[in-house]
Design brief:
alpha/beta; 3-stranded parallel β-sheet; about 15% strand
């Protein structure tokens, strides 16, 4: 086995940037077809309350992705002094707007607001983030399909499928049980006929469980938690973690790293996503995909 940049290792890398770019190109073509056929395009509304720099960055990236795809972008920026009722009114207005097919409320909301109440106010048909209780409920039920699936875990599944990883009948371990990634990722893998185990902070011997896995989705938010000796030879690994670790050689004084010890894991894995450049680009691509699906349902009625 060669070094990190040698060909045997490079062939194992799941290039999330390239796969996301291909998907966004496919979406752009479908949006153009909708426009040619019906004279309408999908619309995505983003509601941001307050002025967190990280939230502003995500919103800017989403608007750029909309522009590239030909999706109309609606944007409502509100001060963090806004009341919950004012935010609910904005959501209600977008629910009623036929030009808007997807609504995304950027989290976290200010502490004086009930996030669950605000998210539940989004119309089920416009819940492109996939977190409406009815969408999550349908995701968990055999024989039912949600209108939308949460973007990050959906991106994990698409990365595996587009990289030629067989899912049916495989042992999959999800490390982490968050509502945003771990729990929906486990449900999606089950829908793909995987045998799924969820490892979490109370799990005994997580390394033993991970060593049984054909597929590992690491989403615990703990840098380099998954070591080489946790990984069965030939396993496929999706690393959702984005952790800042000190690095004096970087201008910012830190670098981003995943939940998996990448340099060691790549020696035994058959496929692995890097951090950054793996799951991250897929999240916004899946948001565009969900918005397109919603637009198609409404426009082609």
């Amino acid at each position: 086995m060669g070094g990190k940049n040698s060909k045997p290792d490079a062939s194992k890398v799941i290039d999330g940037k390239a796969i996301a770019a291909a998907i966004r190109g496919e979406i752009r073509d479908e949006v153009a077809d909708l426009k040619a056929k019906y004279g309408k395009v999908p619309g995505l509304a983003v509601v941001i309350v307050g002025s967190r720099p990280d939230s502003a960055t995500y919103v800017r990236m989403k608007r750029k992705a909309c522009d590239e795809a030909g999706i109309v972008s609606f944007h409502k920026e509100m001060p963090d002094t806004s009341t919950e009722e004012e935010v609910l009114k904005v959501v209600a207005d977008f629910n009623a707007d036929p030009e808007c097919h997807g609504i995304l409320v950027q989290l976290p909301l200010p502490k004086h607001m009930n996030e669950e109440k605000v998210l539940a106010a989004i119309s089920l048909e416009k819940d492109v983030d996939g977190f409406h209780p009815l969408n999550i409920g349908k995701l968990s039920m055999k024989g039912h399909e949600p209108l939308f699936m949460p973007c990050t875990p959906k991106g994990c599944i698409v990365l595996l499928e587009r990289s030629g990883v067989e899912l049916k009948g495989k042992n999959a371990v999800v490390v982490g049980r968050s509502n945003i990634v771990g729990m929906p990722a486990a449900l999606m893998l089950m829908k793909k006929d995987c045998t799924v185990t969820v490892v979490h902070s109370r799990t005994k011997n997580p390394e033993r469980i991970c060593r049984e896995a054909d597929i590992i989705v690491a989403a615990a938010g703990s840098a380099h938690m998954v070591k080489k000796n946790w990984i069965k030879k030939g396993a496929a690994i999706i690393d959702v973690g984005t952790n800042s670790v000190p690095d004096a050689s970087k201008k910012a004084g830190y670098r981003l790293t995943g939940d998996v010890d990448y340099d060691e894991a790549i020696k035994v894995a058959s496929k692995i996503t890097p951090v950054p450049g793996g799951v991250g680009p897929m999240t916004i691509a899946m948001l565009m995909s969900n918005t397109l699906d919603s637009g198609k349902r409404a426009i082609a009625k």
